[in-house]
Write a structure and sequence with these properties.
Structural class: alpha/beta
CATH architecture: 2-Layer Sandwich
Distance between the termini: 36 Å
Largest sheet: 9 strands, mixed
Strand content: 25-35%
Number of domains: 1
Helix content: 25-40%
Radius of gyration: 19 Å
CATH topology: Double Stranded RNA Binding Domain
Shape: elongated
Order of helices and strands: HEHEEEHEEEHEEEEEEH
Number of strands: 13
Oligomer: single chain
CATH class: Alpha Beta
Number of helices: 5
């Protein structure tokens, strides 16, 4: 006799195959039937600890992209925040650690205004979802993943959380902190996907821009970390409310 865990994993694989062929349908809010039986939830944050440092220059030849590791424990903060909110509403939660490279892809699509963005792809996370179900049965998965968003004025890509400076003829026009991510809820039985994308771009002090991230002082580093954590936590909790959890 097959165990419930093995059966669920098999059903997940079969359902995924159908959805990959048919395409995932994204919904503005969690379907009523999913919400009604959504008691146990696996919570996964895959934002990672890497910051995109970007200079948008006067011409394409003066643009510069760099990526730096940070030790800000972003995923731990987001997991704890989601678990706390779900516990308050009577859900049983399983916090799952996951490394970024297992989830982050590079598929680019364009919205109705021809702005590039990176959509969530269910097939990329199948092995991780199956691994969770082998350990514990859950009704749903709540994931937070970084993605790519375009700068409104330049149209250039901003990945995950990004500090960027746009300059004109060498003069800094502005310095911003951008956060592009998605809150994704997956029904473990039907694989119905509800995705809430969000992009937050806010001005920060020009003094926080350095040509190299490693040139920041400890105080400046912590200032950017604090701004990012405060805004990101707020947006994730706001997205949870908007999708109905």
């Amino acid at each position: 006799m097959k165990s419930c865990g093995a059966l669920s994993v098999k059903l997940l694989s079969l359902a995924l195959g159908v959805m990959v062929l048919a395409g995932c349908s994204l919904n503005p809010s969690i379907p009523a039937d999913t919400r009604a039986r959504m008691r146990s939830v696996a919570v996964i944050s895959m934002l990672g600890d890497e910051i995109h440092w970007k200079l948008i220059g006067t011409t394409v030849f003066t643009n510069k992209d760099s990526y730096y590791p940070v030790s800000w424990n972003i995923d731990e903060l987001i997991r704890d925040s989601i678990v706390e909110k779900l516990n308050q509403s009577g859900h049983e939660c399983l916090a799952v650690k996951a490394s970024l490279d297992k989830f982050y892809g590079s598929t680019i699509e364009y919205d109705s205004q021809y702005r590039a963005y990176e959509p969530f792809k269910l097939d990329r996370v199948t092995p991780q979802l199956q691994a969770v179900l082998k350990v514990r049965q859950v009704d749903a998965f709540v994931l937070v993943t970084r993605r790519m968003e375009s700068d409104v004025q330049s149209g250039l890509p901003l990945r995950g959380y990004c500090v960027y400076k746009r300059s004109f003829l060498g003069l800094p026009a502005y310095v911003k902190l951008s956060t592009a991510a998605s809150l994704v809820v997956i029904d473990a039985r039907t694989l119905n996907v509800t995705e809430k994308r969000f992009h937050l771009s806010q001005d920060i002090e020009r003094s926080l821009w350095k040509d190299d991230f490693t040139q920041l002082s400890e105080s400046e580093n912590r200032q950017i970390e604090s701004i990012l954590k405060t805004s990101l936590k707020c947006k994730v909790l706001e997205a949870m409310s908007e999708v109905g959890i």
